[in-house]
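Is this the right way to post structure tokens for a design question? Let me know if I should format differently. Anyway, here goes:
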């Protein structure tokens, strides 16, 4: 048997093994069984990397494998996340013309009301914590929920299928514009498989139905247009992406010196500021803000603003999960004061994040798309390192940005962040040793890669 045939037989074996493992993950896994969960995840990463190394020259073959893997999940409900139950609740309220931002799920239940089909099942599925708070999903996100509410008003599985197909289409969009941006930046287009073929992405998006994928689709499209100088349409798309998930708001200051009129490689900060095309910059930010506001207009009221901001505030001042720097600060608080200081620290850390991003925007040269992408990668990574809550699917943003840079620490993070699922046993209980392993390895690799880049050495391809 010649080498060519052996190569393709092994490639086929890896592909079938990968898809079989995804099927096991989708249909035969209990979230509380962490040993099995993490074994499957490690196996999926190993097989995906082996397949990537063997078949990355066969671009469309790997595309087919990646999206077949997504379709494996089509007939099942998410096994690792309950959030989709809230998505469907909001979807069905909207389909009946009810504003989902004005009442909590718990308030309906306490009044003995069942405003949507399968109210009891959705309420029990999402859990008391989710049901007790106002929805925090922005309007464009709600629009995609609404589609599932229209098309499948009485079936939880049907609603999940609609959400899943929406997310798969968003991943196709990321593949399309991501590949085009890689080509424009003169980078190998197979780099996009670090994201598209990544088991973390397939599990968290197509499996668990998280809408970071849709936000990243609009953001990726915007970055491609921005690179090609179509800044007005890019601004519209960034506004839309903000209205799916608010995260892109944090990255807007990094565009301060991107709209430069001169090539000022060695110029001082003041010279670079003086060379900014102020008219373009102001128009760009204006379009982003206007687009975002327009998407919020159908829901706008004092009550909506109050409920929405209070719910967002909970993520900084009440919730804590898989944090890094915050957990160290919390431990110091317990040792010195004797209680959890999240209420205070949760107000300070966002300010530190904003100041850090402003410092990056001010003192780092950001005049090319590559420089912008690197700045965004490190800005969003700092944000998550200083956050009180870092759910696994949050890592999708630094992962996608890393595809267009020389840094690969976010790929390692996409594997290690899955250790956080160890908390979901019979009772919720975080293993802080595993949290420490996650962040020590990720931060260590980031520091190492910064040193490598400084010394112009080759990185993982």
């Amino acid at each position: 048997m010649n080498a060519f045939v052996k190569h393709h037989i092994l490639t086929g074996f890896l592909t079938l093994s990968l898809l079989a493992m995804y099927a096991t993950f989708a249909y035969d896994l209990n979230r509380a069984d962490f040993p099995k969960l993490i074994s499957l995840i490690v196996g999926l990463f190993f097989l995906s990397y082996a397949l990537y190394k063997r078949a990355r020259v066969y671009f469309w073959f790997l595309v087919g494998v990646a999206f077949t893997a997504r379709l494996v999940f089509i007939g099942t409900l998410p096994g690792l996340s309950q959030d989709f139950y809230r998505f469907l609740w909001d979807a069905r309220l909207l389909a009946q013309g009810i504003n989902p931002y004005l009442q909590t799920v718990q308030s309906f239940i306490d009044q003995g009301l069942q405003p949507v089909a399968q109210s009891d099942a959705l309420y029990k599925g999402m859990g008391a914590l989710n049901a007790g708070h106002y929805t925090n999903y922005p309007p464009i996100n709600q629009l995609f929920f609404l589609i599932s509410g229209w098309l499948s008003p009485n079936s939880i599985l049907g609603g999940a299928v609609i959400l899943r197909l929406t997310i798969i289409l968003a991943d196709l969009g990321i593949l399309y514009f991501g590949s085009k941006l890689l080509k424009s930046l003169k980078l190998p287009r197979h780099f996009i498989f670090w994201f598209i073929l990544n088991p973390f992405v397939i599990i968290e998006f197509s499996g668990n139905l998280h809408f970071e994928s849709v936000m990243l689709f609009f953001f990726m499209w915007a970055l491609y247009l921005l690179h090609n100088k179509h800044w007005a349409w890019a601004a519209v798309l960034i506004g839309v992406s903000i209205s799916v998930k608010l995260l892109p708001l944090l990255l807007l200051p990094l565009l301060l010196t991107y709209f430069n009129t001169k090539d000022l490689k060695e110029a001082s900060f003041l010279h670079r500021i003086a060379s900014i095309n102020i008219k373009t910059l102001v128009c760009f930010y204006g379009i982003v803000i206007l687009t975002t506001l327009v998407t919020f207009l159908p829901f706008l009221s004092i009550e909506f603003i109050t409920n929405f901001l209070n719910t967002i505030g909970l993520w900084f001042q009440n919730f804590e999960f898989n944090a890094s720097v915050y957990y160290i600060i919390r431990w110091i608080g317990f040792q010195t004061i004797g209680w959890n200081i999240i209420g205070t620290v949760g107000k300070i850390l966002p300010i530190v994040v904003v100041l850090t991003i402003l410092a990056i925007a001010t003192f780092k040269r950001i005049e090319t798309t590559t420089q912008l992408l690197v700045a965004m990668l490190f800005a969003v990574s700092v944000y998550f390192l200083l956050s009180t809550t870092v759910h696994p699917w949050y890592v999708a943003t630094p992962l996608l940005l890393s595809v267009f840079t020389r840094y690969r620490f976010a790929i390692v993070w996409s594997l290690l962040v899955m250790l956080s699922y160890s908390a979901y046993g019979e009772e919720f209980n975080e293993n802080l040793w595993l949290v420490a392993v996650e962040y020590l390895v990720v931060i260590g690799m980031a520091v190492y890669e910064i040193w490598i880049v400084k010394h112009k050495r080759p990185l993982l391809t």
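Format looks fine. Someone answered above. Worth noting: The chain has a mean pLDDT of 92. Residues 156-184 form the longest helix (29 residues).
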